[in-house]
Amino acid sequence: MQPFIGVAEISAALGVSDQMLRRGCDEHLGMSPTSYLRLRPMSRVYRVLRRGDPDAASVSKVARRYGFRQLGRFAADYRALFGELPSATLRRGLRPGMADLVLRQPRRSA
């Protein structure tokens, strides 16, 4: 897991002011540097779950690997961003084409 890097550290490393970094991020990314810093690890989790790696068969394990500690908040933010729960992404990754099937209940004879 990488340590958290803030806007001030990024600005200093680039040799620009915080304001210039914010303006550049807004212009090129369409979001603030803080929003991007939050989005990046979430996108990394998505890629790992979508890949369907059996070693990553635990959503909580993957989320923690990328720095998420509050798993309930993580799941809500993930769903808001990707439109599904992280467990659904993982199932789809492990069994491509199978997670979207709807199981039908057998008909009961009258």
Structure characterization notes:
It is built from 6 helices and no strands. With 110 residues, the chain is mainly α. It has one domain: Homeodomain-like (Arc Repressor Mutant, subunit A), CATH 1.10.10. Helix 3 runs parallel beside helix 6 (86-94). The longest helix has 19 residues, at 33-51.
How much β-strand is present in the residues?
under 5%
Please identify the oligomeric state. Answer: single chain
For this structure, what is the CATH homologous superfamily?
Homeodomain-like
Contiguous runs where pLDDT drops below 50 for at least 5 residues: 99-105
Residue share in helix: 55-70%
Give the termini separation. 59 Å
Radius of gyration: 19 Å
- Provide the CATH top-level class: Mainly Alpha
Which topology does CATH recognise? Arc Repressor Mutant, subunit A
Largest sheet: none
Q: Encode the helix/strand succession as letters.
A: HHHHHH
Features:
0% strand; 61% helix; 110 residues; mainly alpha; Arc Repressor Mutant, subunit A
Topology:
Elements: H1 7-14, H2 18-29, H3 33-51, H4 59-65, H5 71-82, H6 86-94
